[in-house]
Amino acid sequence: MKRLHGMELFAEVAKAHSFSRAAAALGMPTSTVSRHVAELERAVGLRLLSRNTRRVELTDAGRLYFERCLRIVAEAEIAHEELRDQLEVPSGPLRVQLPAAYALDALIPALVAFGSRYPEIRLQMSVAGPEYAEHPPEIGDVSIRLGELPDSSLVARRLGAVHASLYASPAYLAARGTPMSPAELQRHDCIGLRTGAGQPAPWPLQRGRDQLLVPVEHRYGANDACMARQLAVLGAGIAALGGDESGRVRSGELARVLPAWSLGPIEVHAVTETRLLPAKTRCLIDFLGDYLDNPGLFLEPELPVRRAA
C-alpha cells in the first residue's frame, strides 16, 4: 500500500507540475508529498521528476511511469469503490452452507423470506454432510451449523435455537402403539438424528420448562431431513422433523407423536472466517437471528421488498 500511495502522490505532482500545489489539493504537507515521491524514486531506482525552483517536469522515465500510473491509479479507485459497495450494499452472490439435518427444512422458509426481502442477493445454497464441522467455509461465505461447535479459529455468532416435533406413520403407531409419555419412546424404533460427525445421541425433549434427556433405540440413523421423513412415512419408526408437516398429517402419511413435547433446543450458529463481512453476509446473519426469534414475523403473505439503494 505504501508504494501505491507514493504512486498516487507522484501522479498528482506530475499533473500539477508542483509539489506545493499537489500538496494543497490533497490537503497534505508539502514535505510529506516530497518524502513519499522520493521514496518511490528510490524504490524504482530512477529519477522520475526534474525539480527546479519554478516548475517540476517529468523525466523520460517519469513520463513513461506516469502513463502507467494513471491506469493503475484509476483501476485502484474502481476496486476501492467496488469494495465499498460490497461492504455497504447487500447485493451479489452469497454462498450458504446448510447442515444436512432437520434444521435444513426449518431454515428453508427463512431463506426464501430473505430472498424476497433482498432480491439483489443471489443465494447459492449447498448441503453439508456430517463431516462439514471439520472444514471451514470459503472466504466470504457463511456456514450455518447445529449443535456444539468444535474449538477453531473461525468466528461464530449464535443465531438462536431450533426445535423439532415427533412424527410417525399411522401404520407404525397402529402396529406398535402410540407412546403417551417420553419414557415410552424407549420401547419404540426411533430414527436417530445426527447434527455433527458423531453418532445419534439421546433426544433432548422439552415441554415448557420441563426438559428431559431420553435415551431411545436408534434402529435407523439419518443426517438428512428428507431421509428421516421418508423413513417415518414408510413406517420405520418415530422421527424428529423440523419442517411444516401439516400437509402430511392431513393426508394421513404422518401423525404427531407426543404433541406437547418437542426435540431441542439445538443451538444454531453462523460461522465465518472473519468478522469483516460484506453487507450481504451481515444481512443474512442478522435476518436469520431475527427469524429464529420470531418466525411468523417474516412469513407474511405479502412480504415488503427492500431494494438496495
Outline the structure in words.
- By secondary structure, the protein is of the alpha/beta class.
- The chain is 39% helix and 26% strand.
- The chain has nine helices and 13 strands.
- The strands form two sheets. Strands 3, 4, 5, 6, 7, 8, 9, 10, 11, 12 and 13 form an eleven-stranded mixed sheet that branches. Strands 1-2 form a two-stranded antiparallel sheet.
- α5 links the parallel β3 and β4.
- α1 crosses α3 and α5 crosses α9.
- The longest helix is centred in the first third of the chain and has 29 residues.
- The C terminus is likely disordered.
What is the strand and helix layout of this fold?
Blueprint: H1 2-16, H2 19-26, H3 30-44, E1 49-51, E2 56-58, H4 60-88, E3 92-99, H5 103-117, E4 121-128, E5 142-146, E6 155-168, H6 170-176, E7 189-193, E8 203-207, E9 210-214, E10 217-222, H7 225-233, E11 238-241, H8 246-251, E12 255-257, E13 262-272, H9 279-293
Helix pairs in contact: 1-2, 1-3, 1-4, 2-3, 5-9
